[in-house]
Design brief:
With about 230 residues, this protein is α/β, with parallel strands linked by helices. The chain contains 8 helices and 5 strands. It is about 55% helix and about 15% strand. Strands 1, 2, 3, 4 and 5 form a 5-stranded mixed β-sheet that branches. The chain is globular.
């Protein structure tokens, strides 16, 4: 579907899909407003008009997640009727599960992931989903290993349950940082291939794509450096 502009040009239309895992997920850079702003910037930069928005509060885990996501189903139906793509801010707002992404590709609706760019084809979406799924499994293994090592050391400071909760919190923060770094690393790789080689240039490119840091902030050279050091 296209809208005719006053100068005779046409504007392509999009259906936006926004998802958060919990009602409280708002300040992490994956919140509803952050996604909405990222999608608006993407649409303006690429010459699209967002003609429908669907917001979901539901976990993205599991290959059967589509059955638990009525808003995504509604977005698919709307996009199909308008012959417009569905756009999400990040791939993990759709899913990190390869089987789920494969199921979406069979829906006869085009998908765009804003952080990957308008020209990312289905093969690329499958590839990034596979990387994210593998990284999620590795993070889970590292988290379990860290908790096991803590227990083996016999660290019991004060209340044993409190000590265990602290260890879990530390492991969770490490896993979250690893996951965030893994999500953004392929995008940094794309940016580097396009000619941006300095940390400052990479940060500028990430900000231009509407991608925020895990804390919802603008990228700086130091934050890019931290990501590269974490995954190397």
């Amino acid at each position: 579907m296209y809208n005719v502009l006053t100068d005779g040009a046409t504007m392509r239309t999009l259906i936006s899909y926004i998802r958060v895992s919990t009602a409280k997920q708002g300040a992490s850079g994956l919140g509803i407003e952050a996604q909405r702003e990222a999608l608006a910037r993407f649409a303006a930069a690429e010459g699209f008009e967002i003609v429908g928005e669907y917001v979901e509060i539901e976990t993205g885990k599991g290959s059967d997640a589509l059955d638990r996501r009525p808003q995504l189903s509604a977005a698919l139906n709307k996009a199909r009727s308008l012959r417009s793509p569905v756009v999400a801010a990040r791939l993990d707002r759709l899913s990190r599960d390869v089987a789920f992404i494969s199921g979406l590709m069979a829906q006869r609706v085009a998908f765009i992931v804003a952080e990957l760019g308008a020209d990312a084809d289905p093969f690329m979406l499958h590839l990034f989903a596979a990387v994210a799924e593998k990284e999620r499994a590795m993070i889970s293994q590292r988290t379990k290993a860290a908790l096991g090592a803590a227990k083996a050391r016999g660290q019991k400071l004060g209340n044993p349950k409190l000590a265990e909760a602290r260890e879990t919190a530390v492991a969770s923060r490490v896993a979250s940082a690893d996951r965030s770094a893994a999500n953004v690393l392929p995008i940094i790789g794309q940016i580097q291939k396009s000619g941006a080689t300095t940390l400052r240039a990479i940060a500028t490119a990430l900000n231009a794509r509407g991608i925020t840091t895990p804390r919802g902030r603008q990228w700086q050279a130091t934050s890019v450096k931290n990501v590269l050091e974490r995954v190397t």
